């Protein structure tokens, strides 16, 4: 029943035509108009907050992480309400796609045993790393990216990029992880069975770093290195899988994603600690150990 019709027809007649009770329908609706306007204004304000956070996340966050970010900012908002507001305004997070493995095993090399056993959980930083290689398309050709993740924090502690995927690329990334990751003796260095990871150069580098232990997953199975595969899916989904104009542009964007967003700003749900960034998770582990 529209308020404009009140000037043309009596309220009693309108309620009779619509088979509605005058006291419980029209007047109740009219008295609730102020509350509805207040709810719409509150939803608009919430939508603005969500849009700001969604844009800051590179349009990657869905309902769970938007909810976690709002809680971190002190806003106590129901998760279902956030889902409704995002759905009504068509605000969506990134959905990851499945990618086939590009691992090329060295059939002549003798791979190391699997010391992880698909248990991608570490009690503290510096005791278990996982690594893999991704290929990013550019107009100049492929840009190869190697990353090492700490399983306790899922922080990218070492990475390297080049126009090739020879063994020195994974060695350079491991050297970076050793310098900034605080690796402990007997730290497990886990990867797939690609020729880069079974090369003499890589094995010798592990030995030079001390008593680190090499570990390799099974050939042809993405589950043997699932944590690293999951990171590639995340990176390609949130950075945007496309062809960059040149390798320099791709390198700059990958660097920005890892250093300014993923390690320091992107929330991840950690079982003991809740939603934290990888850097915050490392700090929380360090404080726990110190205590």
UniProtKB/TrEMBL annotation:
Pfam families the record matches: HTH_21 (PF13276), rve (PF00665)
Highest taxon listed in the record's lineage: Bacteria
Domain called Integrase catalytic: residue spans: 121-286
SUPFAM superfamilies cross-referenced by the UniProt entry: Ribonuclease H-like
InterPro entries the UniProt entry points to: HTH-like_dom, Integrase_cat-core, RNaseH-like_sf, RNaseH_sf, Transpos_IS3, Transposase_IS3/IS150/IS904
Functional note: Involved in the transposition of the insertion sequence.
Protein name: IS3 family transposase
Organism: Streptomyces castrisilvae
Lineage: Bacteria, Bacillati, Actinomycetota, Actinomycetes, Kitasatosporales
